[in-house]
Amino acid sequence: MNDNFDTLEYLNNMDAVQRVMIYTLGVSEKPLKKMVQIQKLLFLTSKSLPEILGEHFDFQKHKKGPYAEAIEENMKIFSSSGLIEGMGFGLSKRGYGLYNIVESKVKEPLKSTIADYKNFISELSEDELLTFIYVRFPEHQKNSEQWKRLEADRVSRALSMLKKGVISASLAAEIANMNYFDFEELARKEGIRWKID
Length: 197
Hints:
This protein is mainly α.
């Protein structure tokens, strides 16, 4: 690793995707530990803000839902440049140096959208995250072995996410593939309390 790292020079050579990714890795106190989390966070952000990120990521159908090769390639670049360290994908001191500059240039609504999705995703298990993605974006279910496995236990995952308070009861019912009132009755029997939608 080069000890003469020039933060501004590195920043000037970064493209828009890399800057968004550095912001994604640095924002909030909750580090993402798996590539699938980073992939899905940027997928959800792209879907929410197509006018900002729509053309930057090319998400394809993959064995674990939507996947953009550029994300994985950039994570390898960040790792070899010493921008991430430790278990998972936490930024190093060098990475935070870049993040602090990038963060000041990120504007709303991108800023809060990424932060909100990062907080949401950090609360979910991988199976909960994938179940959420497949239900919300059913075009990714086709020919997915993961979805076939996850579909069998979608009710328990919907209950778990509702219990964590990360989704509404109506969304949990959709994930469970149940009528809202039947799902509400099941959640009550399970002793789960939730905020009104």
